[in-house]
What does this fold into?
Amino acid sequence: MRRTITTVAILASFAFFLAGCQTSQGGRTYTPGQAQTALEVYYGTVLKVSDVTIQAPQTGGGAVAGAVVGGVVGSTVGSGRGRRLATTAGALGGAAMGSAVESSAAQKAALEIEVEMDDGRILVVVQEKDDEFAVGDRVRLIKSPDGTHRIRQ
It folds into this structure.
């Protein structure tokens, strides 16, 4: 039982570590490399705003962690052949559940914002949904030296 609790605690810590590795892609979040750096600013008018989802790539870590936890929990059930079957079923079920949890955690609500720039160009920027935009809003398009863009009020 102590082994099961230790394994679950280690895997939970791993899951929290992975969740913390995700970076923000919103209009209000800057990387350390963008701080105290001159950024280009352009002005325009919002033409269209659509809700979208940013899906981070799957690492497989959720499936692996789920399989280990499921296998450990399954191994505590029964004995002999029954224990092997329970371990296998636990590992398979845990892998499926871990993969689903990882997929869900890797999704972020976002906006696709279409802007007509003052010079006539039309640009589209996708960023996390951390601000509200409406058609007709005057906005700033901020361009970083690394080529990333963000839209702000």
